[in-house]
Design goal:
single chain, 133 residues, alpha/beta, six-stranded mixed sheet, 6 strands
Length: 133
């Protein structure tokens, strides 16, 4: 089983706090909330999975961050974005994406998938790339 430690990469603080609350209530650990690519990469070691927005404080850097975290630290990535068309890079490194505004059920299904490999029945998660088992 993967580690139940999450990283939230999101520059909108209310969205980030909502994600954090959902995860903490469900028994996950949240290592950090990162608003830009540098803080996200710094917080990545030791995290099992990350919810990553495409557009961060330093621009549309989410896909690049996702790619680096997956490659260098084995972090499982789920994008949480209002702009899924912007996920061009990073497709191969992510499990999928959840469209904003998100439901609590979608977030919990994605977290379970990232930690246990339990396939989400929830169609709020769009699967990506070659990571589909």
């Amino acid at each position: 089983m993967m580690t139940k430690t999450a990283l939230i990469v999101e520059d909108e603080i209310f969205v980030a706090l909502d994600l954090e609350r959902i995860l903490l209530d469900a028994g996950y650990t949240v290592a950090a909330i990162a608003a830009d690519s540098d803080s996200a990469i710094q917080a990545a070691p030791g995290c099992g999975f990350a919810f990553v927005d495409v557009n961060l404080r330093d621009g549309p850097t989410g896909p690049g961050v996702a790619e680096r975290m997956a490659r260098d630290y084995g972090v499982k990535v789920v994008f949480v974005t209002a702009n899924p068309a912007q996920i061009d890079r990073g497709m191969e490194c992510a499990l999928g994406y959840i469209r904003k505004p998100f439901s609590e059920a979608a977030i919990l299904a994605a977290a379970a998938f990232a930690t246990d490999g339990e396939r989400p029945a929830n169609d709020d998660i769009v699967m990506l790339g070659s990571n589909i088992a």
